[in-house]
Amino acid sequence: MDCEAAKRFFSEQKIEFEDKNVEDYWNREELVQKYGQLLTPTIIIDDEKILGFGINREKIVKLLKLKSK
Fold this sequence. Notes:
Helix content: 40-55%
CATH superfamily: Glutaredoxin
Number of domains: 1
CATH class: Alpha Beta
Radius of gyration: 12 Å
Low-confidence stretches: none
Strand content: 5-15%
Mean pLDDT: 94
Order of helices and strands: HHEEH
Oligomer: single chain
CATH architecture: 3-Layer(aba) Sandwich
Shape: globular
Strand order of the largest sheet: 1-2
Distance between the termini: 20 Å
Structural class: alpha+beta
């Protein structure tokens, strides 16, 4: 549900993003290798790792320099 909310948010803001499904073995392995854990959604903005969307929405808004609603 958090993943869907994140995708909807980025789409509404017209922000391009790369969606990688962790049900795919290679995507899951890449996430664990790069970031040391498997939590979704894992959002990377300017090399900053953000785990989860809902609880980090304001942080994401600030990092992307968007107007808060």
